[in-house]
Design brief:
Keywords: Membrane, Transmembrane, Transmembrane helix
Order of helices and strands: HEEEEEHEE
CATH architecture of the largest domain: Sandwich
Shape: elongated
CATH topology of the largest domain: mini-chromosome maintenance (MCM) complex, domain 2
Radius of gyration: 24 Å
Helix content: 10-25%
Number of strands: 7
Number of domains: 2
Number of helices: 2
Strand content: 25-35%
Distance between the termini: 52 Å
Structural class: alpha+beta
Amino acid sequence: MQAEGKRKKGDLLIILVVLIIGVGAAVPWLWNQLNPGGGNGEHERIAVITRDGKEVARINLDKVTEPQHFHYEGGIALTIVAENGKIRFLESQCPDQICVKTGSLSKPGDFAACLPAGTIVTIEGDEYE
């Protein structure tokens, strides 16, 4: 029997293989963290506004330098504002104001909706911090 504390060559080989696999798996993740947007130095978060099922605006939140207001009339009127890399419902004539209370959206996958007005705002893009 082998004394405790001694390792065989096979044990060291297994440890080495596991370390190589671990480092190999970490490299792509680390690359994506350091180079969002596929390594070209660009990443985009696009806010998409749809009203009654139709896309009415696409806003690149990473390129918004001054506040942009979007006013929609007809049915339930509302205003959406994009500023400082975020977008939100500023005001709405809907009864519950859930869309306004949702607050600012900034990350891919975020969304807010004003169902009475038939308006949805979603953020598209690569996830990054």
